[in-house]
């Protein structure tokens, strides 16, 4: 690159040009280093933006989860206030035609801090219930997650259930404790 400059302090134009070229080269190196830093900072910013977006999604999921938990608490309270429920021990289940026969023992759950599971059961009446296919049955998939199940999944179950009744008829069944 040829540059032309006037003479200063009796310096030759060639010396001035060399000095200017050195300065230009230093500036170009400096610009390249700055571009590398900018690229690195841009990559860091992109990662942070992705984390922020992920955190916003997580926050939204937590908020939704809390709202659903609140809804479930509300519905649970509504059901307990408007329907009669009874606790029973499910011994076994059999399918007979379009009915599910549940062999149960009605029981009362009594809190007991000394018991390993925190309660005792006062058992008082054996019965066999005939349940229509339209009645929903929910079993615990985990200690805190209920899932609706088909009849065949009830066949191998035993445990503590809650029977919700309307005018004496069972309308909903849910498992309340996994033995």
Quick summary of this structure?
By secondary structure, the chain is an alpha+beta fold.
Q: Low-confidence stretches at least 5 residues in length (pLDDT < 50)? A: none
Give the overall silhouette.
rod-shaped
CA radius of gyration: 38 Å
Helix content: 40-55%
What string, H for helix and E for strand, traces the elements in order? HEEEEEHEE
Placed side by side, the strands forming the largest sheet appear as 3-2-1-6-7-4-5
- By DSSP (H or I, 4+ residues per run), the number of helices equals 2
- Counted beta strands: 7
Q: Structural class from helices and strands?
A: alpha+beta
Into which percentage range does the β-strand content fall?
A: 35-45%
Please tell me the total number of domains.
2
Task: Jot down its keywords.
179 residues, alpha+beta, 2 domains, seven-stranded mixed beta sheet, 2 helices, rod-shaped
Can you put this structure into words, describing what you see?
The protein is an alpha+beta fold and 179 residues long. It has two domains: 11-82; 84-177, no CATH class. The chain is 41% helix and 37% strand. A seven-stranded mixed sheet has the order 3-2-1-6-7-4-5. The chain starts with 12 loop residues before the first helix and ends with a strand. The mean pLDDT is 80.
List the helices and strands and how they pair.
Layout: H1 13-82, E1 84-96, E2 99-111, E3 119-132, E4 137-142, E5 145-148, H2 151-154, E6 159-166, E7 169-177
């Amino acid at each position: 690159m040829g540059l032309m400059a006037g003479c200063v302090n009796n310096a030759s134009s060639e010396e001035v040009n060399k000095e200017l070229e050195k300065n230009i080269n230093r500036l170009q190196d400096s610009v390249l280093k700055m571009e590398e830093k900018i690229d690195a900072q841009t990559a860091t910013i992109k990662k942070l933006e992705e984390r922020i977006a992920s955190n916003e999604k997580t926050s939204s999921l937590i908020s939704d989860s809390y709202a659903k938990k609140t809804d479930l608490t509300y519905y649970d309270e509504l059901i307990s206030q408007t329907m009669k429920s009874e606790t029973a021990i499910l011994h076994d289940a059999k399918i007979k035609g379009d009915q599910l026969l549940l062999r149960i023992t009605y029981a009362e759950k009594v809190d007991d801090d000394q018991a390993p599971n925190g309660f005792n059961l006062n058992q008082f009446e054996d019965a066999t219930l005939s349940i229509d296919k339209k009645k929903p049955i929910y079993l615990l998939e985990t200690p805190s997650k209920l899932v609706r199940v088909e009849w065949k999944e009830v066949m191998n179950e035993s445990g503590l259930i809650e029977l919700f009744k309307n005018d004496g008829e069972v309308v909903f069944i849910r498992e309340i404790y996994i033995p």
